[in-house]
Amino acid sequence: MVINTNWTVWKQSSSERAxxxxxxxxxxxxxxxxxxLLSIIEPIMSMIRYTDMDRPCIGEIYDGIDSMxxxxxxTINARxxxxxxxxxxxxxxxxxxxxxxxxAPLHLLxxxxxxxxxxxxxxxxxxxxxxxxxxxxxxGCKAAFLRLYPDDDLRDTVTNEFIEFANGNGLSVDALRHRxxxxxxxxxxxxxxxxQHLQPLAVKVLSQVASSSAxxxxxxxxxxxxxxxxxxxxxxxxxxxxxxxxxPRLLSHKQRxxxxxxxxxxxxxxxxxxxxxxxxxLLALTLDDSNIEQTYSASACGxxxxxxxxxxxxxxxxxxx
Length: 321
Description:
mainly alpha, 63% helix, 2 domains
């Protein structure tokens, strides 16, 4: 931009601020620093894009985070050459703090149920250990089993099956060989029949997909607040507005009026009797009903309410229908 002829003919290009911008952009040290920071962020972006796919990948998130940190560490050490790794520890603390916020026992259980992490091809790499030797993974599996199986006898049975799976006891030669060659979902379908209770659990858990839907909801709220007309908001102010906008809506779900009033139809999974009542009301409606809006509120359908008082609006709506 700054070496283009249009920059030189720009009437403000000779100003002090423009001169500083040009000098900064053309500064090789500054460009090298930007490249260095981008190389640190690149593993994070790759991890986000890898998980945001329409395929089951919940079992690979835990290992992906570890691999991401390892790549960032190699990049930082190659540049900093600090024996104390002070800068990397600061970056690692930020990543770990975020991981502790979003992780759940289900992530750790999915990692422990993924067969490839027990294969020789995976464990031959340096600093690799099987999931059962990882304290965080072990505690996560115990917490998940305790929540999924309240019955003590059934939980003990599932635990024993998990121990046999982790040790490879009772598995055929092909089952051991396919640990690193087949995806986790297919492996459990083909070789998991010997684990009567663990196979259904593994199929359900490993069928879960990971996506950025939760973050995209936040981004949608942010775009609503930080628009073209309101683009001078400070980042902290915009963050606070997003917080104020989102959290009261989440807290309202715990109120008694939310579950008993008209808003009960807004839930993702309403009760079956509500669905039956909704279906009967929809079947009874016709386009000729004059009190269609009073019979069934537009807000209960999840669509925006409309004003039918104006005759011109009614004619336009009939044409659109």
